[in-house]
C-alpha cells in the first residue's frame, strides 16, 4: 500500500499515529516503522511563510551517556545527534519546512524522523532565529526544539543520503558551520544543566 501512495499522501496518512495522544510514547509498532520508512514529504506547496520569511523547524536530538571520572564518580554526559548537510559541508541538526497542516512540534518531529531516523519526546522550544539561505535570496525563520531520543531506527526515508553521528557538545559545535544552530545548542546545554541542578537539590532535600 505504501508504495502505491504518493510520498506526500502517505506521509499525511501515517504521521498522525506519531502524535496521537491515545498511543503511549514508548510504543512504536514494527509494522508502522516499516510503513513509515517508505515515505518522506517533498515539495513546498504547503510551506509556511511569515512576512516573506520561510518558516523552518528542527530538533537537536540528544541522549545521556554515563561517564566515570578518574575518582570513580559516575555522571551523565549529553550527546547530540548530527547529520551531514546535503551539500557535504559540515554536520548539522535535522530541520526542514513547517507546513500548514501540522503543528510546529509535529513538523519538528517529522523532519527529525525523515532526516535522522530517530523518534522521541519533543520538549519546549529553544528559541527562534533568523538566518539567510545559502541557496536562495530569502531569509529563513528557524525554530529549534530539544528531542530526547527514545528510539533510533535502522531504516528511515533519507538513509541513502544522510549519515548520522552521535557527538559530544564540543564536537558538534566544531562540526556544525551554522552559528544559529550552535546558539540553540548552547541554550539546550544551559537549560539541561539548570534543570539537573534543580533536580539534585530536590533529591537532597527529600
UniProtKB/TrEMBL annotation:
The keyword DNA repair does not apply. Pfam families: NUDIX. GO terms for cellular component: cytoplasm; nucleus. One of its GO terms (molecular function) is metal ion binding. InterPro entries: DDP-like_NUDIX, NUDIX_hydrolase-like_dom_sf, NUDIX_hydrolase_CS, NUDIX_hydrolase_dom. Keywords: Hydrolase, Magnesium, Manganese, Metal-binding. Belongs to the Nudix hydrolase family. This is Nudix hydrolase 18, mitochondrial-like. It comes from Senna tora.
